[in-house]
Amino acid sequence: MADPNSSIPTLTIGDKTHPIDSLSDIAKTQLSNLQIVDAEIQRLQQQLGIAQVARETFLSTLQAEFAKLG
Fold it and tell me: What is the pLDDT of residues 44-64, one digit of tens each?
């Protein structure tokens, strides 16, 4: 038989799990802040990857231009 509590969102930190509905307003705000920051970190990591590819392309072009100089 299915657990009736299985559809209740929970938060696990370390070895403790609590239903999100049971958290204080402060804890819920901090959870939301963590989700926002995690999304921003992911966005920045993607931007960094793009910048690294661009840098490699610029470096490769510069090396090719140097090669032309002899």
Answer: 999 999 999 999 999 999 999
